[in-house]
Design goal:
Blueprint: H1 9-12, H2 30-42, E1 55-59, E2 62-65, E3 70-73, H3 76-79, H4 88-100, H5 112-124, E4 131-136, H6 139-154, E5 158-162, H7 171-176, E6 194-197, H8 211-225, E7 231-236, H9 252-262, E8 266-270, E9 294-297, E10 308-313, H10 314-317, H11 333-348, H12 351-372, E11 376-382, E12 385-390, H13 400-412, E13 415-416, E14 418-420, E15 426-429, H14 437-454
Parallel strand pairs: 3-13, 5-6, 5-7, 7-8, 8-9
Antiparallel strand pairs: 1-2, 2-3, 4-10, 9-10, 11-12, 12-15, 14-15
Bound molecules: pyridoxal-5'-phosphate.
Length: 455
């Protein structure tokens, strides 16, 4: 353990965790394999793991497994540990909170941390109108509640979502999610009154169209097949997450949002993956000045503790009757303390700017790689939410097999990568926003070597 490889303690959660890629066994190693046997016997097989190395510690930009391997983490627990896995401000506030009290239930006896998180979200989300917030435990729960709130406000029932959308795994959010396998197959019947409109997916348009044209296409489907007067809300990820890190054509989001405003439809931005600095702004909607009526947040907001929220226009948020929203654990005091620590870290370290620097590095390196590797159809994304879409060279035919091989080879080389996309042909990168530059460079070296070795 050398001091040169250690990132500053304020970034990693402690000087003890060297920021390096280091492989000391095969991947997974013997201790991980032994744990995996126990897991296979005890844990339901429907719960998967991308890479069965069992974690002993994690922070900054690395995951250290029980065999002593140190892997560069380009997953961040699916865009959650943006401030690191044990950011000092999160650790400090969580420790203090656990020592004070772990739970009272905000619906029974409230506490300041919950209120403070709601105040912070009102300040940070797009728009300067009066806002209110309700807190929950998971992203899916936030999406479900956004729909409840929109229905209570409008007195209408229909929900419009888009192709390639991912909104969660509960019954309503399964209906809202586009992809059948693995998210929906065998789990129906699904909630009714959910309608799907065409998304703007520039790489896969047969003919290039503008964002305004893509919005007109979607609005035409919505008006003809659902009818504006029946629609409570339109729910959209401003940058698709599981669907493939698709950035809609410029002008698409503003046009859909404007149509919602004109028709009394609640515009809900699902920023669960794209929000909280991930895309180089506090929220992905900020890139085009879009001000949603409601925003769902989760993943990156609480430094790894389970917390989610719906933030929105006060008059819409106040539509449900008292007692209509909530849950035993929603806005748990420990999770709120973590969120306040994560938000303080994001502000102190200017993590939107850090995400923009990551974007620049990744676009430069991956763009150069795409020149040499015709299987890379597109490099896209925003901030620290970047992906490459893999295709049969010269076509847009998805190459999921190659994507799986590249990801597996990256794992073997000590870089934790994820795949995604409706066609399973997208390799996505979600580094923590406090990842040291030299680690990101090294991860990109590995990706380059792996891709050039396989195409
Ligand atoms: C992850 C995700 C969800 C679901 O969040 P959970 O906490 O897993 O329930 C919903 N929407 C988007 C955009 C997501 O990325």
């Amino acid at each position: 353990m050398t001091t040169e490889t250690a990132a500053p303690a304020h970034l990693t959660g402690g000087p003890e965790l060297p920021q390096e890629r280091r492989l000391v066994t095969e991947i997974p190693g013997p201790r991980s394999r032994a744990l995996h046997e126990r897991r296979t016997a005890a844990v339901a097989s429907g719960v998967g793991s991308v890479l069965p190395v069992y974690v002993a510690a994690a922070g900054g930009g690395v995951v250290i497994d029980v065999d002593g391997n140190s892997l560069i983490d380009l997953a961040s627990g699916i865009a959650v540990t943006s401030v690191g896995n044990s950011a000092p401000e999160v650790v400090r506030r969580v420790s203090d909170q656990v020592a004070a009290f772990t739970h009272t239930c905000f619906m029974v006896a409230p506490y300041e941390g919950y209120v403070e998180v709601c105040e912070a979200l009102a300040r940070l989300t797009p728009g300067d109108h009066a806002k209110k917030t309700a807190l929950f435990n998971s992203g899916a729960e936030a999406v479900e509640n956004a729909v409840k709130i929109a229905r209570a406000h409008t007195g209408r029932g229909a929900v419009v979502v888009f192709d390639h959308a991912y909104h969660g795994r509960t019954n309503l959010t399964m209906a809202m999610t586009a992809k059948n396998t693995p998210y929906k197959d065998g789990f129906g019947p699904f909630a009714g009154e959910v309608y799907r409109a065409p998304m703007s997916y520039p790489f896969r348009e047969p003919v290039q169209i503008t964002g305004a044209e893509a919005a007109a296409r979607a609005i035409d489907v919505i008006e003809k097949q659902v009818g504006a007067g029946n629609i409570a809300c339109v729910v959209i990820e401003p940058v698709l997450g599981e669907g493939g890190f698709v950035v809609p054509a410029e002008g698409f989001l503003p046009a859909v949002a404007q149509w919602c405003t004109d028709n009394g439809v609640v515009f809900v931005a699902d920023e669960i993956q794209s929000g909280m600095c991930r895309t180089g702004a506090w929220f992905a909607c900020d890139h085009e000045g879009v001000v949603p009526d409601l925003v769902t947040v989760a993943k990156g907001m609480a430094g790894g503790l389970p917390l989610a929220g719906v933030v929105g226009r006060a008059e819409i948020m106040d539509a449900p009757q008292a007692g209509g929203l909530g849950g035993t654990y929603g806005g748990n005091p420990v999770a709120c303390a973590a969120a306040l620590g994560a938000i303080a870290t994001m502000e102190d370290l200017d993590l939107p700017a850090a995400a923009r620097r990551i974007e620049q590095t990744m676009f430069t390196r991956l763009g150069a790689l795409a020149e040499k590797a015709p299987a890379i159809g597109e490099v896209r994304g925003r901030g620290a939410m970047i992906a490459i879409e893999l295709v049969k060279p010269g076509t847009i035919e998805p190459d999921a097999a190659l994507t799986g091989k590249i990801s597996a080879a990256c794992h073997q080389a000590g870089v934790l990568t994820l795949t995604c996309g409706t066609y399973g042909n997208i390799l996505r990168f979600l580094p923590s926003l406090v990842m040291p530059d030299h680690l990101l460079d090294e991860a990109l070296d590995v990706i380059e070597e792996v891709v050039l070795g396989l195409v």
